[in-house]
Amino acid sequence: MRHTLLTAALAASTLLTGIAAHADQLADIKKKGELVVGVLGTDEPATFIDPKTRQIVGYEVDLVNAIAKKIGVKPVLKQIAVAARIPELQQGHVDLVAAGLTHNKEREAQIDFSLTTFVTGQKAIVKKDSGITDVPQLAGKKVLTIRGGTQEPNIRKAVPTAEVVTFDTSQQAFQALQQGKGVGYVDDEAALLRSYAKLGPQKAQYVVLKQNLSTEALAIGIKKGESGLKAVVDDTLRELEKSGEAQKIFVKWYGPNTASGFQTRDFKLESDKID
Questions:
Q1: Helix count (H) and strand count (E) of the chain?
Q2: CA triple 217-157-216, angle to 5 deg
Q3: Digit-coded pLDDT (tens) for 108-145
Q4: Is the pLDDT confidence value at 78 over 70?
Q5: Under DSSP, is residue 5 helix (H, G, I), strand (E, B) or coil?
Q6: Pick from 170, 107, 167: which is nearest to 97 by CA?
Q7: Which among 3, 274, 12, 47 has a CA at the least distance from the CA of 170?
Q8: CB of 151 within 8 A of CB of 189?
Q9: DSSP three-state, residue 61
Q10: Calpha distance 60→80 (Å, rounded)
């Protein structure tokens, strides 16, 4: 009996030790010397592959590099699919997700979020010869977008009768629009404007509809309950804002001299609250 009790006590102790060892993800990151971040790598200019260096660069990469520097570890970027962002985080395959991730109430039940890192709207671009000039006119039409993001439910909510066709990446969906596989394409405004700018002279054949389908607060995803990691992520973002570095990073990737062409930054890295 004493042997059984001792064995049970040892087992419980081992279990508690194991739990303690994984209770602080920040400590684990410091121990391994790497911050593994899930990124899309196909979402220019947030995260994309530089054609010259073949390295993943972009707005979100600059933010996570700053976080890794704050922690004192090496950033390691891991490309993941849109639909795999939250599962990869929950299963511990990545430490953070910086992948155009919308912060909404539904997802708050699954993961934690950093301070908002970008505020954008989702828009639709259509072929000019379609005659479509506003979002409701997409009713009954084939609309293309990305699988696993908020774009798909938002277009279904805005235009319930639209025939929505999804693709793994924004490039695939936008290419499908160019190939005539649909009359409209929906994406985050910044990414959509980037794709539009790349059309060159063919831009005249397309129209970006003015009406927003939604307003999206994007943030970095953090595994549920990892308060230590969230604190250092948020502290880093606040420091970037206070120092002016956040503004410089925004202008670098989204400013007036970029394909996105944003004249101003209408948000700050200061809150993790959403409506």
A1: 10, 12
A2: 5
A3: 999 999 999 999 889 999 999 999 999 999 999 999 99
A4: yes
A5: helix
A6: 107
A7: 47
A8: no
A9: helix
A10: 14
pLDDT per residue as tens digits for the range 87-112 = 999 999 999 999 999 999 999 999 99
Helix (H, G, I), strand (E, B) or coil at 149: coil
Q: Which residues in 173-201 are b (16+ Cβ under 10 Å) and which e?
A: bbebbeeeebbbbbbbbbbbbbbbeeeee
Query: Which tokens sit at 43?
Result: 């979402």
Q: How far apart are CA 154 and CA 122, in angstroms?
A: 8
- Going from the C-alpha of 261 to that of each of 21, 197, 212, 250, 255, the distances in angstroms are 47, 9, 17, 11, 5
Q: What is the structure's pLDDT at 149?
A: 85
Q: What is the mean pLDDT of the chain?
A: 90
* pLDDT for 262: 86
| Reduced 3-state DSSP string for 29-53 | HHHHCEEEEEECCEECCCEEECCCC
Q: What is each CA distance from 197 to 11, 64, 180, 259, in whole angstroms?
A: 61, 27, 19, 6
- Closest Cα to residue 122, out of 104, 96, 140? 104
pLDDT band for position 23 (cuts 50, 70, 90): low
Q: List the one residue out of 65, 73, 64, 89 whose CA is nearest residue 30.
A: 73
CB 38 within 8 A of CB 99: yes
Q: How many residues belong to the chain?
A: 275
pTM: 0.79
Structural contact between residues 205 and 128, judged by C-beta atoms closer than 8 angstroms: yes
